[in-house]
Amino acid sequence: MDYKLHYERFRLLRLYLHLKIIIIDFINSFSDDVILKIRSELRFLKEFGLSLMSTAKVKKISGTHNLYELRIKAYVQIRLFYILSSPDIFLILHGFVKKLIKPL
């Protein structure tokens, strides 16, 4: 195997493992009921993929080629940004809790 190709695969694997740890820690920071909700939405995403685009659960980020947002509503609103590496494989890149603007 070519050294550069081997190094690139190793670098991508390290990046993947790092992202996985960050996302798992993010998800596990919530209460059990919210974790169940997140896992349920991720199963929906795995099962239905981009067909969820017609719902309020998934939104393509405008101005990007392959970046999507999964919207999860529990007692907090959670957003997970992901890309599709193939039609049935997605990679979660980032997650955050949406801050709600309270009326005055």
Question: What does the model show?
Answer:
There is one protein chain. The protein has 104 residues and is an alpha+beta fold. It has a single domain, classed as YaeB-like fold. The chain contains 2 helices and 4 strands. It has a 4-stranded antiparallel sheet with strand order 1-2-3-4. The model has no long low-confidence stretch (mean pLDDT 85).
Gross geometry? globular
CATH topology: YaeB-like fold
Total of domains: 1
Individual helix count: 2
Radius of gyration computed on alpha carbons: 16 Å
Mean pLDDT: 85
Q: List the strand order in the largest sheet.
A: 1-2-3-4
The SSE order reads HHEEEE
Termini gap: 63 Å
CATH class: Alpha Beta
Largest sheet: 4 strands, antiparallel
Task: Give the low-confidence spans.
Answer: none
Q: Strand portion, in percent?
A: 25-35%
CATH architecture: 2-Layer Sandwich
Structural class: alpha+beta
**Helical content, roughly?**
40-55%
Number of strands: 4
Key attributes of the depicted protein:
4 strands; 2 helices; 104 residues; globular; YaeB-like fold; alpha+beta
